[in-house]
């Protein structure tokens, strides 16, 4: 079978097995922040992905143990652990996809923007290294505040002369995962069949689920749609509060991050019709970055898809989110250029 037919197999589950590894292109994935709450389960899920041939796990500490542990799993990829800044270059060299869950998480009472002061510097340093060691990689930014860290990354890559908007993604998949779960629960439809686009950004009201476009159709009242929208927007806070000071979503985020990285790999390998929502450079609205459905291909973003028809409630939500999203984007751009 050709590589294309293998990578466009009807089975899209990230845990599937059974590919002849020699027929699938070699792909290196680097996880930066791999010893953290998201990093460890995300590294595990990427180790289970048959599209990955080399898995580089980088953190400022504790990666040798995580890498040794994961490396014993009998799946395709070779696993390498890298610890401390001196090893960052080796971790990144030759990477096709770099996933960044490095940085501090929220505690109850904090907004994602409260993480800016610490995480902006972390992301800046990591992106400078990406520009140097693997400028062609697709970058999957998980570190918060995503609405600012993606613009920071873009500015750092511009300064280095390596910026390609097709290769930079803010990971908003967890918003989609949540919207699907909550919609299926309320609408009593099979969760595995649900599709819901989530657009805008990744913080509070900037997260805009488009339940009017959800499939399969469920008979939900306006009040139920409003409640589902708010629950999706506050999904991160729901977990932060339940964890009561011990961090934010890690396991569901690892799942979401693995789904998005898998889509990037499928796109790189030439699979057709790979579409996920992501926060990317965009002309869908007047904002320079915006999350919407994106078609992934051999060079990363193949097409940024439009919003489609919106309900009046969604149109209102879209106008409301723009000022906050704009100021988070500007904050990131300003930080990177100061
Ligand atoms: P965590 O504290 O458990 O892990 C973060 C890891 O990053 C730690 O292992 C730490 O050593 C590492 N790190 C810190 N500085 C680093 C550097 N310079 N280079 C490499 N690694 C470094 O936190 P977590 O729960 O894994 O969350 C990580 C980030 O992901 C947070 O900013 C959080 O807000 C964000 N997050 C985003 C989403 C999303 O949907 N995009 C969802 C959940 C969490
Ligand atoms: C999430 O949506 O779970 C993450 O952005 C983490 C957070 O701080 O809520």
TrEMBL record:
Residues reported to bind NAD(+): 33-39, 59, 119, 142-144, 253
Example of a GO cellular component annotation carried by this entry: mitochondrial matrix
Pfam families per UniProt: Ldh_1_C, Ldh_1_N
EC number: 1.1.1.37
CDD domains given in the database record: MDH_glyoxysomal_mitochondrial (cd01337)
Gene3D superfamilies with a match to the protein in the record: Lactate dehydrogenase/glycoside hydrolase, family 4, C-terminal, NAD(P)-binding Rossmann-like Domain
Domain annotation Lactate/malate dehydrogenase C-terminal: ranges: 172-335
PANTHER family tied to this protein: MALATE AND LACTATE DEHYDROGENASE (PTHR11540), MALATE DEHYDROGENASE 1, MITOCHONDRIAL-RELATED (PTHR11540:SF58)
Name used for this protein in its record: Malate dehydrogenase
Keyword terms of this UniProt record: Mitochondrion, NAD, Oxidoreductase, Transit peptide, Tricarboxylic acid cycle
Segments forming domain Lactate/malate dehydrogenase N-terminal: 28-170
Subunit: Homodimer.
Species this chain originates from: Salix purpurea (Purple osier willow)
One example GO MF annotation: L-malate dehydrogenase (NAD+) activity
Residues reported in the UniProt entry to bind substrate: 106, 112, 144, 178
Subcellular location: Mitochondrion matrix
Family note: Belongs to the LDH/MDH superfamily. MDH type 1 family.
Swiss-Prot/TrEMBL catalytic activity: (S)-malate + NAD(+) = oxaloacetate + NADH + H(+)
Catalytic site: 202 (proton acceptor)
BP term (GO), one: tricarboxylic acid cycle
């Amino acid at each position: 079978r050709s590589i294309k037919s293998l990578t466009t197999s009807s089975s899209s589950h990230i845990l599937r097995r059974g590919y002849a590894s020699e027929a699938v292109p070699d792909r290196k994935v680097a996880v930066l922040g791999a010893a953290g709450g998201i990093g460890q389960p995300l590294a595990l899920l990427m180790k289970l992905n048959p599209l990955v041939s080399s898995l580089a796990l980088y953190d400022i500490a504790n990666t040798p143990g995580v890498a040794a542990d994961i490396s014993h799993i009998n799946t395709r990829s070779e696993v390498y652990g890298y610890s401390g800044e001196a090893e960052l270059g080796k971790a990144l060299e030759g990477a096709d996809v770099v996933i960044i869950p490095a940085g501090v998480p929220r505690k109850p009472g904090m907004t994602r923007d409260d993480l800016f002061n610490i995480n902006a510097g972390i992301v800046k340093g990591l992106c400078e290294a990406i520009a140097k060691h693997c400028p062609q990689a697709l970058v999957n930014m998980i570190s918060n505040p995503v609405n600012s860290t993606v613009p920071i990354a873009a500015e750092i890559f511009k300064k280095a002369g390596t910026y390609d908007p097709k290769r930079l993604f803010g990971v908003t998949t967890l918003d989609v995962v949540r919207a699907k779960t909550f919609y299926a629960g309320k609408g009593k439809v099979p969760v595995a069949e649900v599709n819901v686009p989530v657009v805008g950004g990744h913080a509070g009201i900037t997260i805009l689920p488009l339940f009017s476009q959800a499939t399969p159709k469920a008979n939900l009242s306006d009040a139920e749609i409003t409640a589902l929208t708010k629950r999706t927007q506050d999904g991160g806070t729901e977990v932060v509060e339940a964890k009561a000071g011990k961090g934010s979503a890690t396991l569901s985020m690892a799942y979401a991050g693995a789904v998005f990285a898998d889509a990037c790999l499928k796109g790189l390998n030439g699979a057709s019709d790979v579409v996920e929502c992501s926060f990317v450079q965009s002309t869908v609205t007047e904002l320079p970055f915006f999350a919407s459905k994106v078609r992934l291909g051999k060079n990363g973003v193949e097409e940024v898809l439009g919003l489609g028809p919106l309900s009046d409630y969604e149109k209102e939500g879209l106008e409301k989110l723009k000022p906050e999203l704009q100021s988070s984007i500007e904050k990131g751009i300003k930080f990177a250029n100061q």
